[in-house]
Amino acid sequence: MESVILPCKSIFPIISELPQNYHPKPKIPINYVEPRFTDTQLNYLCTNGRLSEAIHAIESISQYGYKVKPETFSKLIESCINERALHFGRKLHKKMRFLLEKVDPFIETKLLGMYSKCGSLQEAYQVFDEMHERDLFAWSAMIGACSRDSRWGEVMDLLYMMMGDGVVPDSFLFPKILQACANCADFKTGMLIHSIVIRCGMSSEIRVSNSLLSVYAKCGLLSCAKRLFESMEMRDTVSWNSIIMAYCHKGDIVEARRLLNLMRLEGVEPGLITWNILIASYNQLGRCDEALEVMKEMEGNGIIPDVFTWTCLISGLAQHNRNGQAIEFFQQMIANAVRPSEVTLTSTVSACAALKDLRKGRELHSLVVKLGYDGEVIVGNAMVDLYSKCGKLEAARLVFDMIPEKDVYSWNSMIGGYCQAGYCGKAYDLFMRMHEFEVSPNVITWNVLISGHMQNGDEDQALDLFWRMEKDGSIERDAASWNSLIAGHLQNGQKDKALVIFRKMQSFGFKPNAVTILSILPACADLISAKKVKEIHCCVLRCNLENDLSVANSLIDTYSKSGSIKYSKAISDGMSTKDIISWNTLIAGYVLHSCSSEAIKLFHQMKEAGLKPNRGTFSSVISSYGLAKMVEEGKRMFSSMSEEYRIVPGLEHCVAMVDLYGRSGKLEEAIDFIDNMTMEHDISLWGALLTASRVHGNLNLAIHAGEQLLKLDPGNVVIYQLLLQLYVLRGTSEESVTVMRPRKRNHHEESLISWSWTEINNVVHAFASGQQSNSEVPDSWIKRKEAKAEGSSSCNRLCVTEEENEDITRVHSEKLALSFALINSPQSSRVIRIVKNLRMCEDCHRTAKLVSQKYEREIYIHDSKCLHHFKDGYCSCGNYW
Ligand SMILES: [Zn+2]
Ligand SMILES: [Zn+2]
Question: DYW domain location, by residue (predicted)?
């Protein structure tokens, strides 16, 4: 019997520890432990944080069949909860039936709560399942347990079971259930509860109403939310926040803003959360400037921005490519002594990565370490990305290795870093090691590897990975996987292969997305890809991408460059919204097609639509005035750029001005303009002057321009040849020529070969000057025609050509292409499109005009200088090229 008492003695408090109202009973018999005395002891131990001793005592007490009071047992459970001592709780649970006279639902509910609060939902469920009777408290505890674990679906199941048992929630339980409704987007149950709430007469309980409001707001039922909100007798900040949030979710920020003002009029001051909702919403919509205004207003109202406010602004700016500002705001935040969160740091590090700002990035890194965020995986991933983008792969790897629990994004960042730097082997090694860390590659990992290998020219390995990903990796390919291949081929100059993949992608049932279209369309921006542009356009329509602004803009551009300006206009006319790029692209298209009046008309329409012209607009518009020979208007436009629009003219605007003077024969003004320029001259500038002086027969100026050109580009054989011809015209012998002959003789011969290409029935045919023509008839026809047209050349232009003159054995390539197209192109096609690598000569230009008249064909020839559109015997270039 001694042994029974011993443990009790051992835990018996020493006198000094005893509470003041403690009066020990005198003398107890050795074989008897009075339960009430034990209760007092246990209570004392619990209150003084000596739980383990209490549990130890309980074990002995139960062994000998003694009981404790329910209050004591409850107190013990409470202590287990406070100390999160699940193992002690389990011991109590095991002894419960021995220690208590009767187990009542109150104790069981308490036990259930203990399990859930100590993180064992499964055991909580066990207790719940074993209960004989479940009252509102038991249900509330079980529902509370599930909502604590965010198991919203289970909360809903419990609710229906509970109502089946005839138990009705009270005003404390309703908010929990409604929270589950909101998180499951189960608005039907929400509405059901709403009707119960009304029947129970609880609709005036603000806690309940606010929870209902939040269900409607989160489920996007704006009209229900609005009705409920308006019917509420009392509204507190929480109610206002919910309704404002509801409008923000719907993107109706104007109404949200109005409500905030109304809130203040009704005497409820917006709190930090209210302001933050509005600020976050502006940022999500990319309206960062307005977000900033709201923040200033909030500060004006005496509310200090917290870390959430700052983080919203910083990540909003970073996501909308305003990285410099994002970093500035971060610095302001630090200056305001607000401690950044890991999200703030991640956004700021990403901003540095986008700017490749290594210095700031390093500063941030040390701050990350100082604040103890270096173990956070999202911050680590952003740092890996930063160092990779800045080309500091060793630092990236160091950070990567230090991330304690790497997720798939960590691996993707590091693998991506190696790929970008061209170390595909290292990237692949890392990829193979992922399984050692029990991380499975995702579709991004595979795509990063595929595009990495493509970019580094390892097409075979890329394709191998592409086909292996489904079989070996059990990862389904997505549009981005196909896009990696397409973009890779395009980058390697393999347009045809890219198109094959593009078609294969569709035959495999994948819908190309905007990224696909935006990568493949520009590759088709030439005259021989006109049909492919239409094919891609059809695909755009099938995939419903025609409303994507960038896609539509790219179509306008590609159609115009492939010789179909009509389609460009049709696309532009069909657009519901247009940005400055849409306008500029179409204006530039008209300039390319020498349609000056359309370009100028569009420019005025654009201004009427309220858009401010930018640099791109101005160079096109000045060129349009040049085409229209409207020198004064062009000059005014040039000066209005800086005076009215505060845009400093760039080289492209100066070139357009030289062209403007040149086309109108104002060569002196052109050379004056060049002389007065402050910026450095370049090839395009002197090229424009050379064209002008050649067309207007000013030999000396042409030689001056040619010499300047050769100075800027000493290796250019074409210019060298032109210059020699000009010297001959002036009567200077080749020996006295002062300019240097281009060094590489081989290069010279190679690059002077003139090539022309045309596409017929989906096959591109290439022709080189002097090549044996495989179509005798039109060839000889053309020669006959030309003989007749002789003498029709009556201009004072300087007869210099970029390639050798034609003779009996040598016919220029565009003529070969033209005759081939005339014979072989289908009768239905009235348009012939040819691309040439050198500038057309006078003879070929004349021939093309004749053919367009005689055969009633439209002929587009894009040479190295401009796009010629021959129709009815005329060319759009107005003989100026
Ligand atoms: Zn020619
Ligand atoms: Zn022309």
Answer: 800-881
Alpha helices, H only, 804-841: 813-824
Are 190 and 215 spatial neighbours (Cβ–Cβ below 8 Å)?
yes
Q: Which ligand is nearest to the CA of 815?
A: 1
Annotate 724-779 with three-state secondary structure: HHHHHHHCCCHHHCCCCCCCCHHHHHHHCCCEEEEEECCEEEEEECCCCCCCHHHH
Counting ligands in written order, the one closest to the CA of 874 is 2
Under 8 Å CB-to-CB from 482, ≥6 apart: which residues? Answer: 501, 502, 505, 510, 512, 516
Which tops the pLDDT comparison, 316 or 62?
A: 316
Nearest Cα residue to 669 out of 679, 681, 657: 657
Q: Hunting for tokens 């800045």 — which residue is that?
A: 390
What is the C-alpha to C-alpha distance for residues 40 and 31, in angstroms, rounded to an integer? Answer: 19
User: Is the separation of the CB atoms in 653 and 676 below 8 Å?
Assistant: no
Cα–ligand 1 centroid distance for 764 (angstroms)? 21
**pLDDT score for 738:** 61
In 15-118, alpha helices (H): 35-47, 51-63, 70-82, 86-99, 105-117
> What residues pack around ion ligand 1 (CB closer than 5 A)?
812, 841, 843-844
Sequence-distant (6+) residues with CB within 8 A of 42 are: 54, 57, 58, 68, 72, 75, 76
pTM value is: 0.71
Q: How confident is the model at residue 374 (pLDDT cuts 50, 70, 90)?
A: confident
878 CA to middle of ligand 2, Å?
Answer: 6
> How many CA atoms lie within 13 Å of 227's alpha carbon, on the beta-carbon side?
7
For the CA of 836, the nearest ligand: 1
Closest to 367 (Cα-Cα) out of 342, 390, 350? 342
AA identity, residue 65: G
The answer to whether 641 and 666 are in contact (CB under 8 A) is no
Q: Is residue 860 within 8 Å of residue 586, measured between CB atoms?
A: no
pLDDT at 668: 95
Dihedrals φ, ψ of 545, to 5°?
A: -100, 5
Q: Which of 881, 786, 797, 791 is nearest to 843 (CA)?
A: 786
CA of 630 to the centre of ligand 2 (A): 20
In whole angstroms, what separates CA 810 from the centre of its chain?
A: 54
User: 360 — phi, psi (to 5°)?
Assistant: -65, -35
- Counting ligands in written order, the one closest to the CA of 801 is 1
Residue 594 alpha carbon to ligand 2 centre in Å = 10
Nearest ligand atom owner, CA of 848:
2
Q: Which ligand is in closest contact with the Cα of 841?
A: 1
